[in-house]
């Protein structure tokens, strides 16, 4: 492939086990995409300690230039530190990565049940995460604003639509709380519906089934009947909570992949954090990072068959290898590479 069209990736290992799982994911990606062009950049708490900023401008420039990034994790201090802002929140905002895509599927052995296959599409820029908190009433009252715009609701709906068309998925569940929040969540629900109502299907195409659930009912269903979900679209905080619950069905944090997706730029990251309790021991599970790399192949580079190859290799490894073969980062990575 000529270098002009070869996929490019900005690799940002970050803190803690990010330094261990990201090299594993890069090894897998370069095995399946030999012409992948890689640059490395810095972000995170370690970067803040070195330079006084958690995401240097050069990092943002590099991700933009590549159009794709793969990020490990950040450690955020549990106390407030002057001048520090979470690296991942900074990158999501600066790059306007407005959609958070969290697929959850059952994997051999590690999933509690075999029949889960859903994608959660979470709005990634507004809702309660706009950070508009203030004191009122001389400190007796704390207020947080929850912002929902038609623009952000429309673009997240369009992303969900694009994803469903590309992945041949037909059932969309809009999760909201419009009974209590008729303005904000009513706006979200109606805007999403309008985007899907506006799609014209040919007679031989299957249409979309649009469903909606209040978030509390959705939470119960996520526990009791996760196999009934296909694609979920929801606001920021509801998506944050529901997707962590959903991750349980995929085998937990070691298997949960995500893609922060904007227009012309995307940043994949395993859902887990820097795991200081196991960092440096060589025992972090690299599969969440590897599957995050597969999401770049699928959604950013349009290499569906590459994404499927990686996912099939992961499934094969989980089905055929047994402990103790799968207890170190290196052993898991080697087994997956061997299948590939
Ligand atoms: P965590 O996800 O780092 O760890 C939670 C637990 O899961 C730990 O026991 C850890 O050892 C285990 N774990 C996580 N990933 C694993 C993997 N790949 N293989 C095996 N075990 C794994 O969350 P925690 O402990 O709440 O936070 C630690 C640090 O990470 C904090 O500084 C937090 O702010 C940060 N964090 C960063 C995130 C990000 O970068 N997007 C997300 C969540 C937390
Ligand atoms: Mg979370």
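Sequence proposed for the structure above (340 residues):
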């Amino acid at each position: 492939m000529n270098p002009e069209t070869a996929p490019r990736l900005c690799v940002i290992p970050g803190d803690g086990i990010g330094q261990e799982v990201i090299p594993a994911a890069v090894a897998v990606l370069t095995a399946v995409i030999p012409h992948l062009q890689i640059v490395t950049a810095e972000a995170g708490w370690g970067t803040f300690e070195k330079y006084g900023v958690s995401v240097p401008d050069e990092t943002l420039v590099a991700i933009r230039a590549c159009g794709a990034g793969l990020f490990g994790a950040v450690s955020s201090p549990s106390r407030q530190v002057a001048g520090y802002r979470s690296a991942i929140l900074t990158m999501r905002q600066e790059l306007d990565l407005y959609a958070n895509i969290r697929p959850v599927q059952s994997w051999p052995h590690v999933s509690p049940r075999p029949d889960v296959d859903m994608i959660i599409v979470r709005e990634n820029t507004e809702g309660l995460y706009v950070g508009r908190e203030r004191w009122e009433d001389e400190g007796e009252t704390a207020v947080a604003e929850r912002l929902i715009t038609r623009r952000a609701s429309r673009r997240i709906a369009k992303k969900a639509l694009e994803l469903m068309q590309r992945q041949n998925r037909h059932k969309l569940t809009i999760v909201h709380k419009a009974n209590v929040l008729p303005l904000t969540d009513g706006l979200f629900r109606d805007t999403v519906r309008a985007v899907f109502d506006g799609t014209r299907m040919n007679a031989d195409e299957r249409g979309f089934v649009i469903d909606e659930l209040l978030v509390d009912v959705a939470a119960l269903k996520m526990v009791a009947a996760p196999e009934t979900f296909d694609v979920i679209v929801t606001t920021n905080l509801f998506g944050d909570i529901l997707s962590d619950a959903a991750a349980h069905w995929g085998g937990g944090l070691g298997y949960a992949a995500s893609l922060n997706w904007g227009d012309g730029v995307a940043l994949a990251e395993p859902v887990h954090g820097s795991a200081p309790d196991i960092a440096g021991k060589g025992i972090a599970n690299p599969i969440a990072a590897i599957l995050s790399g597969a999401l770049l192949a699928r959604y950013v580079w349009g290499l569906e068959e590459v994404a499927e190859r990686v996912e099939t290799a992961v499934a094969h490894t989980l089905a055929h290898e047994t402990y103790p073969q799968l207890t170190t980062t290196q052993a898991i990575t080697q087994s997956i590479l061997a299948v590939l």
